[in-house]
Write a structure and sequence with these properties.
- The structure holds 2 protein chains of 2 kinds.
- By secondary structure, chain A is an alpha/beta fold.
- Chain A has 2 domains: 155 residues, Rossmann fold, CATH 3.40.50.300; 71 residues, no CATH class.
- In chain A, a hairpin with a 2-residue loop joins strand 4 and strand 5.
- The radius of gyration of chain A is 17 Å and the shape is globular.
- Chain B is mainly alpha-helical.
- Chain B has one domain: ABC transporter involved in vitamin B12 uptake, BtuC (Orthogonal Bundle), CATH 1.10.3470.
- Helices cover 75% and strands 4% of the residues of chain B.
- In chain B, strands 1-4 form a two-stranded antiparallel sheet.
- The longest helix of chain B has 27 residues.
- Classes of the chains: A alpha/beta, B mainly alpha.
Chain lengths: 234, 328
């Protein structure tokens, strides 16, 4: 059991009268890749906010390497080794691509990857001097993944990493993540099914704040119930 | 980026050269005019170091100038305190930094940013001025304190006596040059880059492991400390301290100096302070009440039309000719 990195147990959260999440469990092992999918409003982003400690669950607990992280300041959570990519690309628009990655490295307790290697990983080597605000949407998303990598995370949480991307960019992103698999744990929240299919990993399906199914993606994809609530709506 | 650094250093070198040759052409009175303008330039640079890099406007920066001035005055006017000038400067810097640390701690760690920060600091300035007026047993009330002696101290065998025009001019110029250069090297390096990142997106910077409130607080304290230093220098040169030095008018003026000179350039605000004070003297000689009116108008125009300062006109024109590409 020692290789458990992140454990969410019986997590529930209420916003006023709305039960946004109910009795969710998730175990992320070291160097494991998993996906959380579900239709709009299923609670994916809320669950991710709970996993990163930005939202405190009203019931249940989230433990990272055995520590309760709920309510810690953001920079402390980052220094524990949790990196996060936000849903809306949040890069620093008035800094160059290179400076964005530098700022990310400076925040890390012990950055290992040099900026050049990060640029290569996210395919932005020839845009290093460009202001991040002038990048195309997909490149911003990649830059943000690069920034998340710069802090040498134990766990990388991605909130809809392919939102707004072209199909080619989506597949390139999936390949990027598959290359990184095995270096650290990755949890991706997505609703682009092509992306999740390309990753082909352990998948948790949320529906109305509850667990609908969980298991390997090919089991999920063939599940009638999942098709009804989610895949069928495509 | 590198070309920009080279440009800045070139302009800095030209300014230093001008400051060196100026005494050969100017008389004693003109030297003291420039000297006092340079002190206010240092004050403007201190505000720019905070405002320019964090994007957060402090509307009560004169409070720190005034605190520095009053501490300097009280220390040097007290005969019981030895090494009055040196201890006074140290006390002025430490006092301003201390007040900024307390106020800044609650504001930054309480999540106060943007206009709310501006409003709170505006109130802080008003409180300081009111305290200076009301606490008359210590501060001398409305009329302030007079008879503050010029700076004089011995440091490692070097005797510094600033009662004459030329030595005081050289001393002030050197301090301004060294401080501006130091602030510039801080703000272009790692410290400044992270501050720009925090200005862009504070939550993102925090999620990368940066302690944003602490970094803002340290920047604010450093900025206030330099404002305190400027206040201490000023009262010794002027020989008096009065509640106006921590007042709303000075807080507004310093914002205009920075805005006109170019926010974030550090050197621009110093030049802005010198030129605007020059204009103030000319205009006030026609009609003393005209100046605050004009100042207010300039402020409004700058905010609406040229938020990046007069210097940005050049960058904008260059941008126009480059086929609408964003000017850098």
């Amino acid at each position: 059991m020692s290789d458990i990195l992140l454990q969410a147990e019986n997590v529930g959260i209420r916003f006023g009268g709305l039960q946004a999440l109910e009795a969710l469990n998730l175990t992320v092992r070291d160097k494991e890749l998993c996906c959380i999918i579900g239709p709009n409003g299923a609670g994916k982003s809320t669950f991710l906010n709970v996993l990163t400690g930005t939202l405190r669950p009203t019931s249940g607990s989230v433990r990272f390497l055995g520590h309760d992280i709920a309510g810690l300041p953001l920079h402390r959570i980052a220094r524990l080794g949790i990196a996060r990519k936000f849903q809306i690309p949040s890069v620093f628009p008035s800094l160059s691509v290179e400076d964005n990655l530098k700022v990310a490295r400076w925040g890390a307790p012990s950055p290992a990857r040099p900026v050049g290697e990060l640029l290569e990983l996210v395919a932005l080597t020839n845009r290093a001097a460009t202001l991040a605000g002038e990048l195309a949407h997909g490149q911003k998303q990649w830059l943000e993944i690069g920034m998340a990598l710069a802090i040498e995370p134990r766990l990388l949480l991605l909130d809809e990493p392919t939102a707004g991307m072209t199909p080619q960019e989506t597949l390139a992103t999936a390949q990027m993540l598959l290359r990184l698999k095995g270096e650290f744990s990755i949890v991706a929240v997505e609703h682009d099914i092509r992306f999740v299919r390309a990753l082909n990993c352990e998948t948790l399906v949320l529906h109305q704040g509850r667990r609908l199914r969980s298991g390997p993606f090919h089991d999920i994809e063939t599940d009638e119930m999942v098709r009804d609530v989610y895949l069928g709506r495509r | 980026m590198i070309a920009r650094d080279r440009n800045w250093l070139m302009i800095f070198a030209v300014c230093v050269a001008l400051a060196i040759i100026y005494p050969f052409f100017a008389g004693g009175y003109q030297l003291t005019v420039i000297r006092d303008a340079l002190i206010f330039g240092l004050f403007a640079a201190s505000l720019d170091f905070f405002w320019g890099r964090t994007g957060i406007l402090c509307f009560g920066h004169a409070a720190f100038f005034g605190i520095g001035g009053y501490i300097m005055a009280l220390v040097t006017l007290n005969d019981a305190i030895p090494f009055g000038s040196l201890l006074g400067i140290i006390g002025a810097v430490a006092g301003a930094a201390f007040v900024a640390a307390i106020i800044g701690y609650f504001l930054f760690f309480g999540g106060i940013r943007g206009s709310y920060f501006t409003i709170v600091t505006l109130a802080m300035g008003v409180i300081c001025q009111q305290a200076a007026v009301s606490w008359s047993s210590v501060t001398g009330g409305d009329s302030g304190l007079i008879g503050i002696p010029p700076i004089e101290f011995d440091l490692g065998g070097l005797h510094v006596d600033l009662s004459q025009d030329l030595p005081s001019y050289i001393f002030v110029s050197a301090i301004v040059a060294v401080t501006v250069l130091a602030l510039w090297s801080i703000s272009r390096g790692r410290w400044g880059t992270v501050l720009t990142a925090i200005q862009d997106n504070e939550v993102r910077a925090a999620a990368l492991g940066h302690n944003a409130p602490l970094r803002l607080l340290v920047t604010f304290v450093l900025s206030a400390a330099i404002a305190g230093l400027a206040g201490a220098l000023y009262v010794c040169m002027a020989g008096l301290v009065a509640p106006d030095l921590s007042g709303l008018l000075l807080s507004t003026e310093v914002i205009v100096w920075v805005a006109v000179g170019g926010r974030g350039t550090l050197l621009g605000p110093v030049l802005g302070a010198i030129f605007i004070q020059r204009a103030q003297q000319t205009i006030s000689s026609f009609n003393p009440s005209l100046w605050p009116l004009l100042l207010g108008c300039v402020f409004v125009i700058i905010v609406f039309v040229l938020p990046d300062g007069i210097l940005s006109i050049y960058a904008r024109l260059k941008g126009l000719f480059k086929g609408g590409r964003r000017a850098q």
